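fold-stage: in
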Amino acid sequence: MKIFRSALFLGLQLAFVVAAYAQTGPVVKISGEVTKPLTLSVEDLAKMKRTTAVFTDRDGKAHSYQGVALQELLEQAGVTMGKQLRGEQLTKYLMVKCADGYEVLFSLAELDSSFTDRVVILADKLENSPLPDGKGPFRLVVPGEKKPARSSFQVVEMVIRYAKD
C-alpha cells in the first residue's frame, strides 16, 4: 500500500508539472533599463494593436508580416521614448536576443517615431498565418534595410541598456 501511495503521489506531481509546462508557451521578455519588465506570450501580442510590415526576405520576395510595433512594446515596458528621449537617454540601446544566440543592436532613436518614419515590428504572423517552424514564434521585422541581418528569427528577449565607455 505504501508503494502505491508513493507512486500515486509521484504521478500527481508529474501531472502537475506537465500541466504547468503546457500552460506556459513561448514568450519574449523585455528587461533591463525599464520601469515595468514584460513577459509576453503569443496570446498577449494577439490582443494588442496590430500593424503590418512588408519586408523583402533573403529569397528576394516581399512578404507581409503582422505583429506589434516595437515602439508600443517598449513604451508598455516603460522605456524612455518620445519627448523624453534626449540627452543621456540617447545613449540607451536595445539588444535583441534570439534562441540560437544571435544578437542584434539598435539605438532607441532608430525605433522611435519622433526620430524615424520606419516602423519595426515584433511579428508573430506571416501572410496572416503563424510564423513557420524555425522562424518564430516571434520575429523582429526591420523594413527598409539593404541587408535583412537585423530582422531576427526566434526572438526570446529584448534588453535595454546604457552604452558605457
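fold-stage: in (second)
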Amino acid sequence: MMRLKDWARAIKRDVHALWLAARDPRMPWYAKAFAFAIAAYALSPIDLIADFIPVLGYLDEVILLPLAILLAIRLVPAEIMAEHRATAAAALKKPFNRGGAIFIVAVWALAAVSITWWFIPTAAK
C-alpha cells in the first residue's frame, strides 16, 4: 500500500513540475505545449472517457494519463525537470491552509443557500 501512496505522491509532484515547466521560458515550444496540455488535463475534473462507463471509464486515469505524464517528462530537458521537481516537492511539504479551504467551502455553501432561497417560492401568507 505504501508503494502505491509513494507512486501517487510522485505523480502529483511530477504533474506540478510539468505545470511549472510549461511556464518556463527555457523549454522548447513543443515540450512546453505538451507539458501544459498534460498538466491541465491531469488537474482538470473533465475526463476524456467518462468514469461511469464500466472498465473504460478509468482507463484514462490508470493507463493513458500516467503514460502521457511519462512522455511529457521525457520531452522536458533533464536539468529543467529536476529544478521544477524540487520546487514541486517543496510545495507539497508546505502545510495546507485550512483557513483558505474553510473560506471557499463557506462561499460555496452561502451561494447554494442563496440560490435555493431565490428559487424556492415562499409560502403564501
